[in-house]
Write a structure and sequence with these properties.
Blueprint: H1 9-16, H2 19-36, E1 42-46, E2 52-53, E3 59-69, E4 74-80, H3 84-89, H4 101-118, E5 130-133, E6 139-147, E7 154-163, E8 169-178
Parallel strand pairs: 2-8
Antiparallel strand pairs: 1-3, 3-6, 4-7, 5-6, 7-8
Amino acid sequence: MTSVTSASPKAACLKRVRPGSRVAALLAAACFWAVAFGHAQLLTSEPAADTVLDVAPAQVTLHFSEAVQTRFSVFKVYRLDTPDSEDAQSPAPVVGEPMGGTERLRINALAGVLTEGALKARGDDDERADTGLLDPSDLTTDVTLGLRPDLAAGYYVVMWRALAADTHSTPGFFVFRLVAPTP
């Protein structure tokens, strides 16, 4: 006589898997998930991304989701040169507020192109708006770059290629705008 079971194929498959191997599979999946999404991501910054300022900051601070190895990472700030005609078409900036949608898209597109080349550049001290790392700690979640005291009005691109403690490298950038103070 043949017995008929009402168990689904999925339940039958799970019965064949040893309980210990289910735990191992879950641990492996958790480790994969942590590695896949474990890159050092920028959480916040001072100044904030896309902010309009009327006073030049003395420094830029980046706060990452995990420690980065500053010795093997690259952090830079460049002034973004834009055609004067494009700047004239930009809406009047509001200090303390983020840049507007169209302006932000246009500027970030230009900044992306600049970042690609600038992160690879060596001997570019004359082009940089930063003075380098203020705290050369080898492993940190907070990276601070000093800025030159003579920053002119314009757009500034803060860029990085950060090597996380888990050896994953993550590039990124953001822009802030410095405007002349209103009298």
